[in-house]
């Protein structure tokens, strides 16, 4: 029996991942760019056992059904790599307050990839770990990496995340609605690719957008990166909305935050909004503007401030 514990944080994409080239290996149709957060870590312990079945305990509750199956499938892949077939107990604590409504699959599978690979005796470098996390959830590939990450499109060998330098930014995260989303991102991604007539344009434009965003990062050009971030998010929501049946994640309150961010810019502040597959809105800004942005957006929704955070890391197992 071996045991390993690891911790990872959520990440928010500045250039979004929305669409797969391969669903089995979770290969993205396009690359993406993200900031790993310094808040809301997931801590996961994997203990190999002599039992006949895997056990999955999330936030103190033993899971079965699809949640467990997704973890078991992931462990099966790890066991395949390790040439082992002993089962495991997975105990995971996720600190995202349910009120924050942030996706936990990225931090969850990043922490699981690190803990499971160590428990099963795999010695993976960062690249291999990112490729492994990707199989659990695409965006988890990026949570392996500290601060800012680019996750490459490509085949299984080449589709990993790695660090990029980016201008100094912080993120004001506005919680619009903490409820369960109507359509999961996995399902919505599939529907978008199958039914949205804008999907081909989303794919070609996002590939170009990523190149421009990386250029802006290299040049330390926050204004360009900010514009790209907001435009890319709105394009993602447009292609999603073009699905049949249509899917809308943004609510009137979400839109009011996009409007408030535009007003802040009109007043000379540097702030740009983005939103994932839900109504919450994340606003990026240089550190000197964070306090004002948080105050102004805080009038519309509950806010929390995040800074660039650490990549996944081993931890001492909890007693
Ligand atoms: C992203 N999202 O780039 C995009 C933007 C949500 C909106 O990655 O099917 O949970 O597990 O690979 O990673 C959410 O999708 O999907 C996501 P799977 P995942 O952050």
UniProtKB/TrEMBL annotation:
It comes from the Bacteria. It is an enzyme of class 4 (lyase). Residues 8-159 form the Diphosphomevalonate decarboxylase-like N-terminal domain. InterPro entries: GHMP_kinase_C_sf, Mev_decarb, Mev_diP_decarb, MVD-like_N, Mvd1_C, Ribosomal_Su5_D2-typ_SF, Ribsml_uS5_D2-typ_fold_subgr. The keyword Translocase does not apply. GO terms for molecular function: diphosphomevalonate decarboxylase activity. PANTHER family: DIPHOSPHOMEVALONATE DECARBOXYLASE. This is diphosphomevalonate decarboxylase. The gene is mvaD.
